[in-house]
Records
---
Amino acid sequence: MSSKSIEGTGGAGRAGDKVFSGITLLAGCLILLVLFSVAVFLLWQALPTFMADSADISGGEGFFTYIWPLVIGTVIAAAIALAIATPVGIGVALFISHYAPRRMAQGLGYLIDLLAAIPSVVYGAWGMMVLAPALVGPYTWLAENAGWIPIFSGPASQTGKTMLTAGIVLSVMVLPIITSLTREIFLQTPKLHEEAALAMGATRWEMIRMAVFPFARPGVISAVMLGLGRALGETMAVALVLSSGGLIASLIRPGNQTIAAEIALNFPEAYGLRLSELIAAGLVLFLITLAVNVIARWIISRHKEFSGAN
Amino acid sequence: MIFTVLSKGLAGLSPDFLFTSMGGMTGAVDNASAESGGPVLGGAYHGIVGTLLITLWATIISVPIGLLTAVYLVEYSNGGPLSRAITFFVDVMTGIPSIVAGLFAAAFFGLVFGPGVRTGFVAAVALSVLMIPVVVRSTEEMLKIVPNELREASYALGVRKWRTILKVVVPTAISGIASGVTLAIARVIGETAPLLVTAGFVNTINMNVFAGWMTTLPTYIYRQLMSPTSPTNTDPSTQRAWAAALLLIIMVMLLNLGARLIARIFAPKTGR
């Protein structure tokens, strides 16, 4: 009797084991399936665009002519964001990890987390209602005094809703990502390297330059790449801040557009071929960010092995 | 920035704002209140309802999948190609632009139910695409730090592996998992772009996620700023947008605090 019951529970347990491990495996595969189907469905819905007569596409000259200015606009916005956020982010991270007293470092860390938690639409609203009007003055000044540089050629926008404003808002949004990731990497620097550098008579800055930066370089690069991925795909800030238009060189005039904002602005009213055009644009964005992320992850994984050897 | 939101948002945050919708709000109403200096009518109740419902559904979808995947990665896989692929693609998924997730959900449901389907549920699917990787990552980290001795002790008592996982490993890590999930919710609750393309926008209250368009707080802010209810007097709309922004930030902050609190309350139970 007793042996039977033991066998009974054993059997049920074995079945449960199989079922449970099957379920977990299924969930794992489901994730792969989801990512795969993201690509497949976007491709499927975007197909009509690639098939269609080039005259039917917005702009009338085929999909490539339509998407090209958007890709450039996306890259410009992300580039501005990174140009601002990278030095500031690395500086703040360095300050937190190597200079600030513990209490202050904690406070700054909280602040950075807070910045990361604010929804993007709020950043957009802030950029639109506060930052853009505040930047009209500087833009006018730039147009008058640095107008000979193509990117500052006037006449400056009178609303401040320009590519440069969008880039600045984006830089505030990617700042938390870059800062928190680089801080982690700076903190991982082997203490022995740092102490050795200090023992050789290096000042603190020299120590950071000789011990911390070479160690952290791959990690910093991948942190910047992840920030780039975020900046490329960011929608609402650009959609709210930028008054869009055709591709122009000047960053302080209204104009330019990014892929993500183009989709958000036009999708609610789109149908038929226009819809598939926008989905094709989304596919392009997906591929760009996928490439950026894969490269970033690859650098990180290489870095992991490297630091594991230390 | 927080100061701006606070100073502009507090003015519009009233019980009326919280518990009325934009149903019947037209430009004329805004014009009247702007001219007479009366209070700004209309509110974000429909947006709050939409936000809560859509986020709830996204959580219902993504938490089981994310949890089980993490369990697979930590407990069952032996570092084979499949588990490495999952880890890698989960990382990649973290970087999917939110609007692409929205497009995916829209494209998927458009293919199945005919084009132009926009309901709260489609939005929930889009959000769960964004949410799953966050849940997987945090759960994985938490399961990894469960001491192996606990598992071995359980095996030694003759407990099956799946019972061990359900009764020993997961309960030990539950505080970390719960706070990870809360942080994931905080991340998706403020998403705007995917909702714009999946849930549409309405002025009235819609309690049903499976039918009809739905509004959430982020899309509400966006609409109030981009196309004010009254084109001539934009101030009431702007005020509503700031109030909604403040509300959204408060929700996100509460979730973040909640996550910390959960982690702190449950932490001693791990006995470490």
Note: Chain A touches chain B through 69 residues (CB under 8 Å).
---
Amino acid sequence: MVDFELTPTDEKLLDSAHQQALIARGYADYYDKHEDELPPREFPEAAKFPDVVTLAAEVPHSSGPRILHALVMSEVEYGGMGLRRSKWGLGNTVLETVATPEQIEKWKNYTIAIAITEPGAGSDPANIRTTATFDRETGEWVLNGEKIFISQAASADAAMVFARFVAPDGSRGMTTFLVERGTPGFTVGPQLKKLGIRSHDTCNLLFENCRIPEFNHIKGDFKSTMSVFNDSRPMVAATALGVARAALDFTREKLTERGINLDYRAGSRSRSAIVDKFIRLEAAHEAAMLTVMRSKWLEQQNHPPKVEASIAKAAGGKAARRITQGCIEILGPEAVAECYPLDRCFRDGRIFDIYEGAGEIQRLIIARVILGYTNRDLR
Amino acid sequence: MLQDLAAKALRPAARVADESEAISPRTLAELWATGVIQARADEDAPARTCVTNAIALEELAFADASFAIAAAAPLGFLSAIAAHGSAAQKKKLLPLFADDDYRSASVAIAEPDFAFDVSAIRTSAVKTRNGYRLNGVKGPVPLAEKSSHFLVIANLDDKREAFIVDRNIAGVIIERKRGIGLRALQMANVSFKDVELAGDALLGEAAGCDVQQIVDSARVALAAIMSGTSRAVMEFAIPYTKERVVHGAALAQKQVIAFRLADMRIETDAMRWMVWKAASILEKGKVATREAQLAYTYAVEQAMWIADEGVQMLGGHGYLRDNPVEMWYRDIRTLSVLEGAVGV
């Protein structure tokens, strides 16, 4: 039977996540104004609450850990940031997916950032210019190049770096290296000055004759390494929709204060332009959230989503743009002043259709699937 | 089975039905034979099947929206009787729809006035010594001439109620209104001029009924039908744009087209999940007003966009009446202003 209801245990966990988000919101506003400061691993209030992100994967009597995890992440982003900083980076997922048992053993407790994007290679990682050359004399790899827009750059213990290699036998290709913090020749730049998500740790990385031992060569093929994004896409959409929902809730509160109530019974012809606009934005949120649920539900049924993950990401990214822009339009002049959290939601909400595969990349993937095209047929 | 019927029998009959402004007896018999409608008339069958009905309506609408409404109209009527009727009303009406022959009936909510809204109905009923007197105009009502009954939503002492009205009763006047789309449904305005109703015409009798639930069910059904027709547009545009070569490459190989097709897929998926969610709440007998509103609002917005882009991708061919997107474009515009009339 088709059922969209959550179990009582799920509701309880989400409620706790929501309470935490309301507290975290204050910190998000602080770090929005102090972007050079790195938030602590944990805020003092965290001690009073369960670690919902970890619990989501383990809670018994759940509607499903994958779905719950997405809903919890949506709540965390509702607050703008978590009370606890995640120890997990996308580099960890790469490590777990493709590394040898010895490599996993060595770095399993590290926070590992992922470093793919370069000044000339964002949506198209095939353009990566960072090189890794093997030094026969020392048996080391020598990395040279620049990575930009790297999340968790300053707080991570290591970075999983994508590079072109030239092997001793002259063969070439794309591969990954784990580079630990403090390795000579590896520099983390200052925090980037961004439109939003200013509490997020984002820097550029520089590799200048950076020498890496052979043991740090994580020999995943490009395709399986990139597959980590299949899981993360609907999660990014879930977080995008957390920001969008914060904007919607704030706007609804303001409308209610003015005595403008949302009547879902009436039809579109008897409501004001403001109420009509709000209901349309709310519908856009619901629409995108359900594509996320669909993708996560498939994961849960052991049918790894393909096109559905991209559908969720495209829908979530687009909805976050439309909703945060639309809420400001509804509230007018008051909203363009620094009127937290709407001002921050508007700026934060713009990233989700850009990072982890821009909306255009998702549409490219979806279109190839529905048209039966290869990446040569449609590029 | 439904997909098979949709592809082999219903889709090929759609254009003829549109041009002749009539659904053939054979098509009506095929729709009836699906059993979707009678299942609602069977008191012993599992009472609530809103999600299944929503899925069925999407598949029927994938073949043709008029045909889907021809099923959804009696379905809406029966659902309302089954959900809100008194024991006597169910006993009297439900068996009429258990036969082997197509029979129509409609919920009549909409009124032919641009200022109409489901929250501001003008049709009214007053209490009389023996029952009620009904006055007002409803429309567009699908298959009005073929209907044996209408469930008329009217105000009674400032509260919306539903009245079961026999089509043959004095004062019921049916007037055909040709429209932009859904032409096979022979839409009509139905006027009620001092129609005298017996005391048992009030749905739910003394208890009355929850009219909002009927409205919610109608919104979900229409959203389901709009997802089906939207999917039809998308699945028609895909092979065409792959085949059509412009400036040396298939249209579909151009991102401006491919991305719009991708958006069609995103939106038809989203529309469907919204329908399923609202229908699953209705199925549990809970209040789905918000979810039904959101599903309907989103479907209206997206379906028109999809039909519009569908015509554009087909170019001049899409403007010709021998091409189905020409009809879907008209049908979707009509569906999106047809609040009421149907149900899951």
Note: Chain A has a mean pLDDT of 93.
